[in-house]
Amino acid sequence: MSDKTLVIHTCCAPCSSLPIMLFDEMKIFYDINLEIDQIPNIIYYFYNPNIHPKEEYIIRRDELLRFAKEKNIHLVIEEDDNSSKWENAIEGFESEPEKGKRCEKCFELRLHKTFEYAKKIKGNYVATVMSISPHKNTDTINSIGKSLENKFNDIEFICFNFKKNDGFLKTTKISKEHNLYRQKYCGCKYSIR
Fold this sequence. Notes:
Elements: E1 5-10, H1 13-25, H2 28-31, E2 41-46, H3 54-71, E3 75-77, H4 84-90, H5 101-120, E4 125-128, H6 138-151, E5 156-157, H7 167-177
Parallel strand pairs: 1-2, 1-4, 2-3, 4-5
C-alpha cells in the first residue's frame, strides 16, 4: 500500500457492492496499471442530496452503513439535510429525461463535493461507483470527473466502468446474497416518474 488516498463517491449499497468487493480483492488496480506498492488507501464517500424523499435517503444511507460495517470499510457520510444545493444545480432541467442534462448537473454536483472532500483530507484520487448503473452514462460520468480533475490540480479522477463484464448483473447477485435494499428509481423526485 502507498501513502496515497482514493476517495470513492458512493450512492447506495447495491451500486457500491461490486466495486467494494473488487477494490477489496485489489484486482481492479491492475486494470489501471497500479502495482501493489502504488495501491492507495480507500475512503468511500456518501454525498447524495438528490435522494428523495427523506425516508428514502435514510434507508439508502443506513443500508450502505450496514454493508460498510459488514465489509469493514472506511465510509464517510456527508449529510445534507438541505437539498437546495441540488435544486439549484438542476434548476431549468427539471423536465429533462433520465440520462439528460439534469443527470449531468447532478453528477457534477456530487463529484465536485467528492473532490472537495478529497482536497480537504489531502487525497490524491477520486472515483465513483455510479458507472455500474445501466441507467447512467459512464462516458458522461467519467467526462465530468476528468473536467473536475482540471479544477482540482492535485487530484486525479480515475475512470472506471463497473458495468463491463456483467457488472450490473454481479451487483444484483451480491445484493441478493447480502439482502441489500434495492431501490426502484435512481433517487431524485423526477426519476420516480
